[in-house]
Specification:
By secondary structure, this protein is of the alpha+beta class. The protein is built from eleven helices and 13 strands. It has helices at about 10-20, 30-40, 75-85, 105-110, 115-135, 190-210, 225-235, 250-260, 300-310, 330-340, 345-355; strands spanning about 50-55, 60-65, 95-100, 145-150, 160-165, 170, 180, 240-245, 270-275, 280-285, 290-300, 320-325, 375-380. The protein is globular.
Length: about 400
């Protein structure tokens, strides 16, 4: 796949220094690291190696990746590595896609308290699905799910929401049978929405009481309990957005979706259209108009600000597994379910995903010569950045 003419890295290289100077003291260490990593990705600054074709002698330089999870160039490879580990978890059942979204008022609190509020979002969404699914009026089973955090909308605004991919059924209370949901239908959206609202607000209020929330700027007044309670009051009376997308056509489609979706960043390089006179233009889908493709142009500093809105705190996990897919017992539970279903992972579905080309993957695992197709052999290592160590005198 050819390299896009314009990349986020180009924007950071041309305008990153000026943006950092204009916002000195207002950028987190994580945001500064992202700017540095993305602009250096696959450049001489990170080192690399020289390859030569064993057949025709053609040579080229390959620079190292930054491997930052916010870099548009690095995430496709990471997605495929992650997907390899998920193939064994595939069940031959219908899969559902359910999205839990935070209201705009809560989104502003989330931005100033990312680790705390995003964790509450994960926990509340997962408990909502497990609680309603366990109710005998609905499914009466113990379910599993994979949840992925996205914090952006199509125009890069702050829009925190969790995508939950859920197999259509679960284990019976005694663990002796598999209980399938109704074909094409998982759980009622309105019931999910109201429980999600209650669970999230209860946890958010508890975090405030425990002084785990910090406020600054326009939100500083929310540190006072009365002001915080006044903000939450109207949120208890409005409907929160929880919606179920159409179920996947089959397990193979689930894997194909996950391979593209789990490691997505706020904007891909292929959506960028132009960088002219200090303004960035990019394509976006207007879902209010049926997904019509439109063009948006922003001042370059506003574009960088929006991109950096979505930098997660260091170490924060944006892909989580719950229920019978939780890491502690997933292997044993999936094996049990496959026995109960008298099935095994569908080899055809797995092969279909492996055959699909990864988005924005510009460097193959086994590089071939672009001239003759022969094997490229590494003949020289180019040094990258080295940490300086101070030698301590033992005397």
């Amino acid at each position: 796949m050819s390299r896009p003419e314009l990349e986020v890295a180009d924007i950071f290289r041309h305008h990153g220094d000026a943006y950092r100077e204009d916002n000195a003291g207002h950028l987190s260490l994580d945001q500064l690291k992202v700017i540095g990593a993305v602009r250096s990705c696959r450049t001489a600054a990170l080192g690399g190696h020289v390859e030569r074709c064993a057949g025709c002698g053609h040579s080229r330089i390959a620079y190292n990746s930054c491997r930052n999870r916010h870099c548009p160039k690095c995430q496709a490879g990471a997605a495929h590595e992650w997907l390899d580990a998920r193939q064994a978890d595939l069940l031959p059942v219908e899969y559902f896609h359910i999205v839990f979204t935070l209201p705009a008022l809560v989104g502003s609190i989330a931005y100033q308290n990312k680790a705390t509020v995003y964790a509450i979002l994960f926990e509340s969404a997962a408990e909502t699905l497990r609680t309603i699914a366990a109710d005998k009026k609905h499914l009466g089973a113990s379910i599993g799910m994979t949840a992925v955090l996205h914090t952006w909308g199509q125009t890069l605004t702050h829009h925190p929401h969790v995508h939950c991919i859920v197999p259509g059924g679960g284990l019976s209370p005694d663990g002796a049978s598999w209980m399938s949901c109704k074909p094409g239908y998982f759980l009622p959206e309105r019931v999910l929405s109201r429980l999600f609202r209650r669970l999230f607000l209860t946890r958010l209020k508890a975090a405030h009481r425990a002084s785990r929330l910090r406020f600054s700027g326009d939100l500083e007044r929310l540190a006072a309990p009365k002001a915080f309670a006044a903000l939450l009051a109207p949120l208890r009376r409005v409907e929160w957005v929880v919606y179920a997308k159409r179920p996947f056509a089959g397990p193979g489609q689930v894997l194909a979706y996950l391979s593209r979706y789990t490691h997505r960043v706020a904007i891909s390089n292929r959506r960028l259209l132009a960088l002219d006179n200090g303004r960035v233009s990019f394509a976006w889908k207007d879902y209010a108009c049926g997904g019509a493709l439109k063009r948006m142009t922003l001042d370059v500093h506003e574009f960088i600000r929006r991109f950096l809105l979505h930098v997660l705190p260091g170490g924060f996990q944006r892909i989580r597994h719950y229920g019978f897919l939780a890491n502690g017992h997933r292997k044993a539970k999936v094996a049990l379910i496959l026995r109960l279903l008298h099935a095994a992972p569908k080899a055809a579905a797995i092969a279909a995903v492996k055959a699909e080309p990864p988005p924005e993957r510009t460097q193959a695992k086994a590089p071939l010569c672009p001239c003759c197709g022969g094997a490229m052999v590494i003949i020289e290592i180019l040094p990258g950045p080295r940490r300086r160590y101070r030698r301590l005198d033992s005397s």
